[in-house]
Amino acid sequence: MRDNLSEKPFQPINRNPKSVYNRVVDEIKKSIFEGKMSPGDRLPAERELAEMLGVSRTSVREALKMLAAEGLVSIRHGQGAFISEQDPDEYLKRFASHLPVNQDTVLDLFEVRKVLEPQTARWVAERASQADIQELATMVTTTREQLRRLHSGRLSLLAGHDSNFHYRLAQATGNTVLVRLMHSMLDLLADSRSRSLAIPGRGEKSVEEHYEVVQALIQRHGEAAAAAMLRHLEDVEEQVAAAWHRAEGGYPRSNGHRRS
Question: What class has domain 20-85?
Answer without folding.
Answer: mainly alpha
